[in-house]
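**Protein record**
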Amino acid sequence: MGVVVGRLGELWVQTGSATSFTTEACTQIGATTTYKITSASKRQWDSATTVSVFEDGASATTPYTVQYPIGRIVFASAPTTPVTVTGEYYDTVQVAYATGWKLDLKTGVFETTALGDTTRSFMATGLVDWSGSFERFYEDDTWAALVAAGSTPIFKFYEDAPSDRVWIGYGAISDWGVTVDVGELIKENVSYSGKGDIFYIDSEA
C-alpha cells in the first residue's frame, strides 16, 4: 500500500497485567454497525483473551469481529441493543512523543489470471504487515526500560494537528539508537514492527 508519513505521534505502553471487565456498556459509532466500549480507559484490550459480546443481555448471534487495540466490535449487520462486552484490558501510560514518523503498510496480493486471459488480474488479501520508524527528542530511558521489560507498546500515529485522525495498533520495538550532533538536540531513532492489525480511526473520543 505504500508509506504514510506524519509529524505527530505518541508511544504508549501497558502497565501491569490485564484487568477484567464484565458486561461493559458499548456506544454505537454514528449510523454504522461498529460499537466501542463506552469507558475510554478500557479500550486497549488484551488480544490473548477472548472477548464475549452480548446483545440485549444474551450472547451475540449477529456475526462480528473484534478490534482489540481500540476496543471496538464491528457487526456484520445491525445488532440487537443494548450491546455489552466482557474481556480484559490494559491500563496504559504515555511514555514518548514522536516528532516525525513513517508507517509502511503491506497487503497480500495474488494473481487470479485465468488461462487464455489477455490481461493479468490480481486479488488483494488485506493487510498482512505493517512497520516503520519514528524519531523523538531524547528525554530519559523510561519508555525504553518499560519496553525492555516486556511491556507491549501501543502506537498512536496522528496524521496532522489538530486532526483527530489516528492510526492505532500494538507493536514491538525492533531497533533504536541515539543521535548526538554538536549544537543539536539529542534525538532517538526507533524502528518498530506491528502485531496484528493496525486501525485508522477518526477520533479516540
